[in-house]
Amino acid sequence: MTPLSKRGLLQTTGLMGAGALLGCATPGVAQSTVRTPFAVAPTTIPIVGSDEMFPVRRIYCIGRNYAAHSREMGSDPTREPPFFFQKPTDAIQHVPTGTVADHPYPSLTKNYHYEAELVAVLGKGGRNIALDKALEHVYGYAAGLDMTRRDLQRAMGDQKKPWEIGKSFDRSAPIGPVHKVALTGHFTQGSIWLKVNGELKQNANLNQMMWSVAEQISKLSEANELFPGDIIYSGTPENVGPVVRGDVIEMHIDGLPNLSVKIT
Ligand code: MN
Predict the structure, then answer these.
(1) Which of 39, 115, 182, 254 is deepest in the core (most CB within 10 A)?
(2) How much is the pLDDT for 42?
(3) What separation in Å is there between the alpha carbon of 146 and the centre of ligand 1?
(4) Cα 29 to ligand 1 centre (Å)
(5) Does the structure show a pLDDT above 50 at 213?
(6) Ligand 1 center–CA 60 separation, angstroms
(7) What is the model's pTM?
(8) What contacts 136, CB < 8 A, 6 or more positions away?
């Protein structure tokens, strides 16, 4: 089987699974005969100006992508190769524009941090994607929060254990709706800020990213084959910090509507 036909088969299988879960036939695809003992809800995000939903396959996040944030995390912000981690797909909490969504303070932590981030969502996959073609894989963008149990992340790091428990937990990925590239263009610069209870905490420019969205896609595709539905949290600027119950977070990226959550 050639790599191309194998990929086609995998995509077809995915469509059949989705069709079965949603209880409808996918046009052009035979109805699935796979039987499951229970349904698992797909993770989707509304797409602005469309009645379609964006299906999330994987959530990737880049670490330490702004020099000043890298320094505050105790790293040397020389341009070392980018590193990525993942959150579980169902960590997504969609926050409708114009609302302040309740966001539950998670278990186990006493130091719960915000990280305001631009999120690139992919409409096209690939492996070893060339830098000059990378942005062609972007379907759109959203504002997102990479919520972090900082005390757990640090404790695990100190013990040289995976810090997954600090990053990858239920509802750790609040996100606004997807805006298609045609609506927004690509984001290479522009203000990104975050306020807590109206007080400015993070305030930076997207042009301060050490690795651009295009570079992130190209580099990540060397480690994993990317697929439509993969999304990439592109890193947070400096001045991350804690929130407690009752706090309201508002984040902004030039060209996208603000995203707000209340910690409950
Ligand atoms: Mn982050």
Answers:
(1) 115
(2) 96
(3) 5
(4) 38
(5) yes
(6) 10
(7) 0.87
(8) 124
